Structure formats: structure tokens, C-alpha cells
């Protein structure tokens, strides 16, 4: 045998051995899913409920029934991964079908979906084919293996990855080889570090403190942290934990109780436990909360330093779930409110960003951008006045525990009456207590927050970002706690339309309460006029029929002058609290000729100076705004491998936000504005532009010159990254890397379900 022939045979044998090598799910497959599948297949809005953020999700497979259904008359059974079932057999009994198993002579459903996607490649960086529906409201077919041929005939571009540049040749080969090998899945095992294990032991001891006081505090803390991704000071990067109720005590494997809500009856003895979060971290559900030795001491001092009595342990009935103020009345209100204020950004994120991944029926109750701040505990009568607290507590109950369809309006009327009675009592109690600057809490950098809504999602950041908004919220303890319970603890994403309607209607009352509280800071004579500006047109009818009247007589102690009191207040707020404002904003609130952040290289300074020209302009004077989606990202390359990300956030103006439906009828596009944020300020980017820093002034000029769709398309052609762009995934996965570099604790994979076909 010649040497050449021998070498050829050897290479053939080596190649065959490599081909036969077993593919590892954790080593080879999950990284591909994380890079190119999790952006769509995670959370409740994952198409066909196929969650590819973990081996458990891949094994579970898909389901024809969507989680989001705004018109269902009956609540459906929860299908929460890692909670409502364990193991493939249990998920099959719940109606999930495999996407990994071959069926007869047919390849696995995933293999066929990938083949279909590969057989219909997209034209590079061109618009998607006409008629291809990529909206999040589309009806997904979710074909079973026996239905795939018919699906493929009707949906030539329905393969995976859906409506986006596909897998690389290498990735495709690896996934197909894994499927041919039977798609074995090994589950990820997260082991706490010694430092984490010690802190887990200490925190579980606190959560399970024996005795009546410990029982009540543990329950309250659980209901306020169950949704958090907990992380430890000094812990391993990327290690996050969830607080659950477990049938097993500390030291034994966690056996979680799958109650529908965190305040439902567990039905058995349990312990509060911390368990690792094993799936890929996705930004939209990644609501973090820090644990440390200092935090442990703080919580212990807040709840156990004073010797307060507990007469009885409350049950888990509907009345207790509806009114946490009554359920936990034994715990000092000062401790409860201060705990929430310490990490106010976390609590506002839970109900503003939320874990539900789609919530336009809730987000249309808020403005597209506004600021939030809080009432100081020493000046909150619910904390300081026992008689007032006893009077108002029964009126703070919230709807949503019962979901009979025929009783929706009756529930609404009952709870609206209670809420308005509470507002009348509140107005009377504060009538002789004029608001002052000292009444605004300023304890840490959580004291000032900015909210930006993007249609059916919203984001929260510390600090005051953007131009002075139309509305501001001043939240006291009853407002903050009710919002949290109504939208987080008591909200059931699997609930029916009655439950969801009650939730939305009551949140409208909470928003109105936060606005009315803010107005107390302004001169009495200015309040009604400002309120009327927030409730234009049909909103005036809502003011008359659903809300309470404002206090137009009690003076404010703030010196705000006579002209534009709201703007004067905002400017003084920025000046007085500059020391705790986590986000100074020279781009949107430029006070001179330098409209950029200090410390940036010259290229980025010029870029930010140009971007500042887009702010503080109405849609009537900047027509390009009407062509931009809700959240646009700019990836700016600054040389030497450095890049910076900016968010262009479209703030839609509305005549009012007082109604559940008809939002488009209340939209005022000529009053829309843009906010420029250095960084990523959305879990759901709608589009991405990529350009060298030197091109940013030209990009801004092009935006300023847009007059019609043709002008905007030319801009997209030059700098846009369409779903079909050959490097789409390079740019999209770089967004996660950017977050890991700039906000490592908050980083997670972004969602591309809302990435538009511009």
C-alpha cells in the first residue's frame, strides 16, 4: 500500500470516528440554541410553548395551545417549566408533543423544521417575502409530526429559524447529527460554590424562622421575592437562584409546590428553599435581587428587631389573598414599606417589565414614558397614623380572585367604590398636611426611576432619563404594595378574560392615584388644569364617572412659581436630588453646547452630540419618528474593536390612557418624541442599525430629512440590519455580549419576536 493511499485511509477512518462521536447536548447543542433559538423560544410567548433555554424545555417539546389568549372564558392549566410537571411522561399527559423523536420513517419534527428553513433561504438583507406574517399576534400552527407535510406545503417560509438568517453549515450539521443519534439530553447541573452554599443556609434559616412571627415574615418575604432571580455577593458569575416553597426541608433535594399563585394554599407542610435556575438567562424574565451578609442583617433588623405580637396566623383564602394589608397587618408597616424602598427598582420592574413577556392590555394603562418617586416613610400616614391605617385597610382589597364572566362589571363596581372611599379618606387625612420636599424619599439611588413603555412591554431604569415627561407618579406604601400584588402576586397569566379585565381596570385606578398624589406637590390652583391635560377627550368622562376629585385647596410648600409648575418641579427635583440620580442625561437634557457624556472618546462625543439633535422634537417636526418602531438599537463602531449601543425609544403620545380598548383612536402621532439612551433599554429590540461612529452625524441628518417611506427605506438599506442580513446573528448575539460587559448581573439573551420587517 502506498503512503498516499495509507494516509487517505487513515484520514477516512478519523473522519468516520469524528462523525460517529456522540454529540453532547450541553457542550454542543445548547450553545447553538442559546445563540439562535432562545431569542424566540423562551418565556410564555414562545411559539408553540417550545422553550429551548434548557434540556428540560427541549425534551418537553411543543403544545398547540398558546399561553396568551385575551378572550378565553375559562382559565387554563398552568404549564410552567420546572414547576407544573417533571419528566417527559408528565408533560405528555399535559398535551405536549416531542420535537426530538423520530416517528417511523420520518425524521424528528425539529429536523424537518430545520430542513424546511434551509430549503428556502432568504435574500440577503432584503425585506421578507410579502405576506409572511411575523407579528407576535400571528396564529401559530404548531404541527404534529403527522401534520408536517401539509404545514410545509402551506408555509414555504415557515421553517426554522423562522423568518431570519438560518444556522451556519456547521451548526446545522451538528444539530442534525444529534437528532440522528436520538437527541440525547443531559440536564444541566448547577452546584453552588462553598460561599453560595453558606449564604443559602443562612437565608433559608431566616426564611424559615420558627414561631408565629417567623411564619408571617417568611410568608411575606416569599410573596415579595418569589419572582426574583436572586444572586449572592461574591457568588459565581451567572449563578442565580429562585425562592420556592418545597415539601422538603433544608439539606434535602428541593421538591417545589406548584401552586397557581404564590399566595395560594400550599396544601401541605413546606419549607422555603433556594434552588438554582438551570435554564439560559433571558433578559425579559431576568429581574434580579441581591443577597449578601449586609442584606441579611438589614432584613433581620427590619422585621425582628422590634418585639411586635402576632395574634393569629392568617389563612390562604380569597379574602386574605385580595388584601395583603389585612393579611400581614401584624408586621409593622414601616418594615414592609422600607424593605420595598431599599430595592424599589426591583419592585417596580416586577410589575412594569414583568415576567409575562406580553402585556399590552396592562401596559396601555401607562404613558410611554414617565418618572416615578416615592413618599418618605416618615410622612406616609398609613405608616405613622394607626387610626388612619385601621380605617383604610379594609378598603385596600383588590379584585381578581374570582373570575366568573358574568360578574366582571359587578366586581369592578365593588372595588372601584372601595378604592374611591379610600381616596376620599386619604384626601381628608392629608388636607392639613401640605406637601414639602422632605416628604419625598431620598434614601438611595432607587429613589428616582424612569419608565419607558414599548407598546406591549416596558422597561425601568434607576435615575431620571429623558426630557421632562408629561406625567409623574408619586407612590406611597399603599400604592406600591397594591400595584405589586395586583400585577405580580395575584396576576395569573393563564387566567381568563374576566380575571385579566379586573386586573387592568384596577391598575387604571392605581395609576390615577399615583398621579393625584403627585399633584399634591404642585400649587393648588394648577392641579385641575394639569389633570385635564392628562385626561383629554373621553378621559374627561372617566374623570367624572370613575375617579375621585382632586384636592384643589390644600397648599403645597414647594416654591414653584406661577408658570408651568410641573416643569418647575421637575427641574428642582433634578437639581435637589442630583446626588442620587443614577442617570444624569446630557444627551436628552442638554444644558449647553456639550450634549454628550463626559469621558467618551472624541468619535463618540461627536456621535452623541449628533444624536442629541433627535431629542426634544415632536413628530410634527421630525417625520422620521412615524417610521421608527418602538425600540431601535444603534450599534456604533468606535474603532479598535470597541462599539457602543444606543437605544432610540419612540414615545407615543395619547390624549389619555384611561380606557382598555381603542388605544389607536387616542394616539397623537404629531406629539410623539424620541429618547436617546446610551445602552440597551428594552428586552425586545424592534430593529438594529450598525454604523461606524463617523457615520452617526450622516445617519442623524438622513433621519432629519425623511419625508416618506422611500426616504426611510434608503436609510435602512445603508445602515439597517434586516432579519435576512448575512451577519444578523453576529450582531444580535453581540447585544448579549455588550450587556455582559456593561451590566453583567442584568445581562441576558434579548428577545427577537418583535424584530420588524423594515
From TrEMBL:
Domain Cytochrome c: 24-183
Name this polypeptide is given: Fatty acid cis/trans isomerase (CTI)
Alphabetized UniProt keyword annotations: Heme, Iron, Isomerase, Metal-binding, Signal
One Pfam family, short name: CTI
Gene Ontology terms for molecular function: electron transfer activity; heme binding; isomerase activity; metal ion binding
Stretch forming the signal peptide: 1-20
Tree of life domain: Bacteria
Amino acid at each position: 500500500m502506498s503512503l498516499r493511499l495509507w494516509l487517505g485511509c487513515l484520514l477516512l477512518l478519523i473522519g468516520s470516528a469524528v462523525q460517529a462521536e456522540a454529540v453532547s447536548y450541553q457542550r454542543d447543542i445548547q450553545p447553538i440554541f442559546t445563540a439562535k433559538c432562545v431569542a424566540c423560544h423562551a418565556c410564555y410567548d414562545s411559539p408553540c410553548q417550545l422553550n429551548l433555554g434548557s434540556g428540560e424545555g427541549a425534551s418537553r417539546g411543543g403544545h398547540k395551545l398558546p399561553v396568551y389568549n385575551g378572550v378565553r372564558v375559562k382559565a387554563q392549566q398552568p404549564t410552567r417549566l420546572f414547576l407544573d410537571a417533571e419528566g417527559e411522561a408528565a408533560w405528555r399527559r399535559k398535551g405536549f408533543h416531542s420535537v426530538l423523536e423520530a416517528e417511523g420513517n420520518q425524521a424528528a419534527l425539529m429536523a424537518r423544521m430545520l430542513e424546511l428553513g434551509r430549503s428556502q433561504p432568504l435574500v440577503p438583507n432584503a425585506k421578507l417575502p410579502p405576506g409572511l406574517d411575523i407579528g407576535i399576534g400571528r396564529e401559530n400552527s404548531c404541527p404534529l409530526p403527522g401534520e408536517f407535510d401539509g404545514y410545509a406545503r402551506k408555509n414555504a417560509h415557515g421553517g426554522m429559524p423562522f423568518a431570519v438568517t438560518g444556522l451556519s453549515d456547521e451548526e446545522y450539521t451538528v444539530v442534525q447529527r444529534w437528532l440522528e443519534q436520538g437527541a440525547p439530553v443531559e440536564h444541566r447541573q448547577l452546584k453552588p460554590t462553598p460561599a453560595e452554599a453558606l449564604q443559602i443556609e443562612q437565608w433559608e434559616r431566616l426564611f424559615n424562622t420558627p414561631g408565629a412571627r417567623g411564619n408571617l415574615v417568611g410568608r411575606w418575604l416569599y410573596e415579595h421575592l418569589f419572582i426574583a432571580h436572586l444572586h449572592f455577593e461574591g457568588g459565581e458569575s451567572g449563578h442565580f437562584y429562585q425562592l420556592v416553597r418545597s415539601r422538603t426541608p433544608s439539606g434535602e433535594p428541593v421538591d417545589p409546590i406548584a401552586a397557581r399563585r404564590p399566595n395560594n394554599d400550599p396544601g401541605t407542610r413546606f419549607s422555603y428553599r433556594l434552588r438554582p435556575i438551570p435554564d439560559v438567562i433571558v433578559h425579559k424574565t431576568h429581574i434580579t435581587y441581591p443577597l449578601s451578609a449586609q442584606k441579611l442583617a438589614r432584613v433581620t433588623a427590619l422585621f425582628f428587631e422590634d418585639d411586635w405580637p402576632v395574634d393569629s396566623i392568617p389563612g390562604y383564602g380569597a379574602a386574605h389573598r385580595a388584601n395583603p394589608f389585612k393579611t400581614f397587618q401584624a408586621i409593622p408597616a414601616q418594615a414592609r414599606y422600607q424593605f420595598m424602598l431599599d430595592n424599589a427598582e426591583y419592585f417596580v420592574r416586577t410589575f412594569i417589565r414583568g415576567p409575562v413577556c406580553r402585556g399590552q392590555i396592562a401596559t396601555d394603562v401607562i404613558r410611554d414614558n414617565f418618572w416615578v418617586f416615592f413618599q418618605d416613610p416618615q410622612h406616609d400616614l398609613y405608616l405613622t397614623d394607626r387610626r388612619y391605617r385601621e380605617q383604610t385597610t379594609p378598603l385596600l382589597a383588590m379584585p381578581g380572585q374570582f373570575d366568573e364572566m358574568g360578574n366582571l362589571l359587578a366586581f369592578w363596581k365593588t372595588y372601584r367604590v372601595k378604592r374611591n372611599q379610600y381616596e376620599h379618606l386619604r384626601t381628608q387625612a392629608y388636607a392639613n398636611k401640605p406637601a414639602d420636599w422632605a416628604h419625598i424619599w431620598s434614601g438611595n439611588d432607587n429613589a428616582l426611576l424612569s419608565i419607558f413603555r414599548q407598546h406591549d412591554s416596558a422597561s425601568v431604569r434607576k435615575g431620571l432619563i429623558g426630557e421632562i415627561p408629561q406625567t409623574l407618579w408619586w407612590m406611597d406604601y399603599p400604592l406600591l404594595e397594591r400595584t405589586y400584588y395586583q400585577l405580580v402576586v395575584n396576576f395569573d397569566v393563564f387566567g381568563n378574560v374576566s380575571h385579566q379585565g379586573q386586573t387592568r381596570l384596577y391598575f387604571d385606578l392605581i395609576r390615577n392615584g399615583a398621579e393625584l398624589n403627585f399633584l399634591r406637590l404642585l400649587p393648588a390652583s394648577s392641579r385641575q388644569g394639569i389633570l385635564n391635560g392628562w385626561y383629554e377627550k373621553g378621559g374627561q368622562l372617566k374623570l367624572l364617572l370613575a375617579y375621585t376629585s382632586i384636592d384643589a385647596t390644600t397648599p403645597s410648600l414647594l416654591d414653584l412659581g406661577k408658570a408651568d409648575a410641573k416643569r418647575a418641579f421637575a427641574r428642582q427635583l433634578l437639581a435637589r436630588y442630583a446626588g442620587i440620580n443614577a442617570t444624569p442625561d446630557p444627551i436628552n437634557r442638554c444644558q449647553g453646547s456639550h450634549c454628550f457624556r463626559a469621558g467618551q472618546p472624541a468619535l463618540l462625543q461627536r456621535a452623541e452630540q449628533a444624536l442629541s439633535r433627535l431629542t426634544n422634537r415632536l413628530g410634527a417636526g421630525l417625520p422620521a419618528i412615524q417610521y421608527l418602531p418602538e425600540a431601535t438599537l444603534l450599534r456604533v463602531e468606535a474603532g479598535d474593536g470597541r462599539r457602543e449601543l444606543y437605544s432610540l425609544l419612540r414615545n407615543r403620545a395619547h390624549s389619555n390612557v384611561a380606557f382598555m380598548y381603542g388605544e389607536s383612536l387616542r394616539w397623537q402621532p404629531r406629539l410623539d418624541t424620541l429618547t436617546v439612551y446610551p445602552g440597551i433599554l428594552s428586552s425586545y429590540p424592534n430593529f438594529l442599525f450598525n454604523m461606524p461612529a463617523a457615520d452617526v452625524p450622516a445617519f442623524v441628518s438622513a433621519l432629519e430629512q425623511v419625508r416618506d417611506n422611500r426616504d426611510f427605506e434608503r436609510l435602512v438599506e445603508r445602515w439597517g440590519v434586516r432579519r435576512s442580513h448575512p451577519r444578523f446573528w453576529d450582531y444580535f448575539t453581540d447585544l448579549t455580549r455588550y450587556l455582559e460587559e456593561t451590566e453583567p448581573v442584568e445581562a441576558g439573551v434579548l428577545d427577537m419576536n418583535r424584530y420588524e420587517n423594515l
